[in-house]
Amino acid sequence: MPNCMKLLLITWGFSLPMLAAASTEFLLTEASLKTIADKGSPQLDQIQASFLASDLQRTQNNELFAPELFGRAAYSETNERAILQFIPVWSPLKQAQLGVRQNLKYGFTAEAAVITDQRTASTPTTKYNNITSTTLSFTMQMDMWRDLLGRISKAKLETVQLDSQRAKIEREIQNKSFIISLRRIYWSLVANQEFTKISEEMLAFSQKQAKETKQRFQNSVAEVDELARNEAQVATKKAQLLFFQYQKESQLRQLKTLLPELIDSDIVLAPYDLSKAIDIVTACSTEIALEPRIPYQNTQYDEATAMIRKVKAQTVFLNSRYADPEVKLYGRAKATGVGSDASGTSSYKGNYGSSITDIESTNRTGYEVGINVVIPLGDAKAETQRTKELYDDKRLSASIDASDAQVINTHQQLIKNIVLLNEVIRAQTLSSQQLERRLKFMQKKYQQARVSINDLIQDQDALLRANLTTIEAQLQVLNALFDYLVIYTETPCSFNRI
Asked: For the chain, how are helix, strand and coil distributed in percent, rounded to 5?
């Protein structure tokens, strides 16, 4: 063997114990799952991101009504020649503008600004040095039709705020649903372990039976078909155990996907009491059954639905104004002062201070009033409006109806489901007891050669199926209550306090 291969094998041999030691044991309980989940998980981050997406829309909409400071400054200089000698070429030219602007929630836009202009030039007969003008302006624009008195702006604000509140409620619901999904996996692992225990007991019994049959065959007491039937039964039980092991690994993989912190952990189930859990579930179901009406106080779905109804009403109004013309009235008042003091007959000089003084000492105010109109032509906008109205109506109505139906049906069906499943458990428990009793008699008869091996194996399989069905029914009882708690997240029973 080449030296490099030997080195590789030695390294691999040393690495195996290190890899085994790297994994830590995690004792799995419902409470420990909750503790790990509280530290964070990709799914919880995704739930938070969905909420933030809605809240981001709210904050972005609020930005439209936040005051903003704007400004502009420019400097230009040129060596160009005047076309006519008495028309000066202004150079350098200094311009600046500074102002505050805000969109109000009542269909108004207000703006206040200071504009300055300072320039220098000369002609063969006159010199202009830093001639300065300063303008104080105030502009107001008002929507006279579509957003009159801010009806559109206020409706949009209320819509995004309602949507943000709805998203917050849904985040709380989804967070609790995520914990319930972890609890489902936990109890599936418990059921899997119970399946495995029962199958291991039956496998041990089948192996013992096959061993005895082999001895009898060697002593020429049993036939070859009897031996083959027993060995086939052992192989079947082993295959069933392997299938349960596959199910367990799938459930663990799902758990580690939801909680990546457990990826390097060796997950071991802590001691549990399945029968006690079923009793707690039954007690919780009894408490729920005492509610004569739909317990809306135990669910947040009705709050989210109420938000959606309000959003729908606002959306109907917003869509009805979509194709309206835009008519905006604006007015601007301004005062301008000029700093241009004569120094002799051929020289003028100015500065910022003199332009401000000119505004204060002289009435140089002015105003401007106008109207802007935009009217959509053709059917393009009207067609878009009809599509938006239909889309939003279907989308929001479906959400409202689905939520209402889910709340009502979940409460009405839980008790029926629990009652039926409890009947199944009682029937299967009784069946298991009777089948176990019958199997003992069948074993004695088989040893006395009074029944065939096929009859004995059929009874063994019947007992196995009955025991597995009992565990499966118990798991279904748990899942039925979990389905209820996904909707009624505030149900005040001990099973919902994990």
From this structure: 65, 20, 20
